[in-house]
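Methods — Computational structure assignment.
A single polypeptide chain was analysed. Its primary sequence is given first, followed by the predicted tertiary structure written as structure tokens.
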Amino acid sequence: MALHDLSWNRSSMGSIFDGIDFDKVDLADVGRSLIKKLLAGSQSRINVDNDEWVLIERSDKRPLIMHAFPTLVQNQEGPHTVLVLIDLDDTPQISPIALERIFKMTRAEAKLSVLLSSGITIAESAEVLGISVATARSQLASVFNKTRTNRQAELIKLLGRISLIP
């Protein structure tokens, strides 16, 4: 497992492993023990379409969901594994820059989209942005057109998938 090659969010990892300062830790050195610690807390496994996911219960938070799958890495020896760790208490942040580039949104449309994806209303978004509700609705109509969506729920679902892009 090439732990040193993992891309990870330091603040998310810090919330999962309380008390570890990930700015001072070499993940390659401690990664295996961290994974073992996670697995020790697992209570059950969930089989979805012949894929096994590990459910890790936490007393004070929603569970973590973990899945590992092997992968090939060209020009590198040894087995490599991709570890997917989903923290159900973590809300991924959507990059407004990604929205601007993918859907050719204006900066204002991207900011509105990010706010709506966080769960606040169009009126609350307008207030945060310092614009009228009518302007926010006009921007939302443009966002719907650019994303080929028709409803806020559909837009939020799409934005959730985009939240994986840094």
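Note: The two ends are 23 Å apart (CA to CA).
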